Amino acid sequence: KRGALVSQDQGWLLVEGPPGGGKSTTEVRMPTLAPVPSPEPTAGATNHAASSEFEHLSAACAELSATVSRLRRRHERDKTQFRRTLRQLESSRKQVQTSRRRRQRERLNHRQPPSS
Q1: How far apart are CA 5 and CA 39, in angstroms?
Q2: Whole-angstrom distance, CA of residue 39 vs CA of residue 82
Q3: Measured between alpha carbons, how far is residue 91 from residues 18, 82, 85, 97, 100 in Å?
Q4: Which listed site, 2, 86, 93, 107, has its alpha carbon 20 to 30 Å from 69?
């Protein structure tokens, strides 16, 4: 009613501070996730849970190891291909330089004297 809040396209605009001189007694904290309570394991469930977690971690480790090996092979293959391409480009660059020099010499040799 006082006009402290103004509606806008993307939300609300606070024009005035809270009543009471602008001194807020509430502190705003960053939200945190509450820990999820785990059910109390029984004696047999503890070993099963640990075994299951170990199997999961072992599988993840094996998958990671396989991925690293695959990436290493791919890197070596890409490196070999890159070197091959680099040699081809170097050869092409030398051929172009040789052709340019030859063309420049031909132009110089075929120039006609200025007409009188």
Answers
A1: 47
A2: 55
A3: 76, 14, 10, 10, 14
A4: 86
